[in-house]
Amino acid sequence: MAQKVSSTQTTELDKFIEDQLVPDTRFRAEVIAAIDVVCAFLRERCFQGADPKVKVSKVVKGGSFGKGIELKGRSDANLVVFFNNLTSFEDQLKGRREFTQEIKKHLHTLQQEKKFQLEFQIQDEQQPNSQVLTFKLRSPELQQEVEFDVLPAYDVLGKPVRTRACPSTCLYPLRVCVCVCVCVCVCVCVCCV
After folding, report:
1. What's the CATH class of domain 8-156?
2. What is the enclosing helix (H) or strand (E) of 50?
3. Which residues form the Polymerase nucleotidyl transferase domain (predicted)?
4. Are 79 and 35 a contacting pair, CB within 8 Å?
5. Nearest Cα to 79, choosing from 180, 174, 184, 156?
6. Where are the domains of the chain?
7. Residue among 110, 168, 164, 103 at smallest CA distance from 132
8. pLDDT tens-digit map of 73-84
9. Using CA atoms, how far apart are residues 192 and 188, in angstroms rounded to an integer?
10. Going by fewer Cβ within 10 Å, which terminus of the chain is more open, N or C?
């Protein structure tokens, strides 16, 4: 018969969490290292030779892997790619397909450079007009993988200019959805902007 959680020893709970829920430490470290490479690549080399106005301004990690709360076999991750040339959500929607294709082309280049200890697989579009790019990082040895969605986005907040220091307890957080197909909320202290 199953034991009640309240009567279970903490060491047993810790062991269960370590064995059943937490991803392998080596896999986690390899994924984090690979994502750092992908993010740097997107910021520094993506859109070279393209329209000179288009540049990646920043890449934000989201999903459970981005937040550091990943679970074994059940983790998701998002890389939200912000561009410096977008002036509205309409610009984002109009250019989304083009941005996604350009990112995919550059990720294929990165894939050929083989900078990863993990298998790096760019997924074929599952829908003909898909505006999200998906890739997997996989460890055949550890039998673990994580799937990433790359999402082009308009940075609605831009570069905030702070006029004063942010208080440690702000009562007026602002949440803004920056992506059409996946809600990625960015919290900003209104009194700091």
Report:
1. alpha beta
2. none
3. 53-111
4. yes
5. 184
6. 8-156
7. 103
8. 777 889 999 988
9. 8
10. N
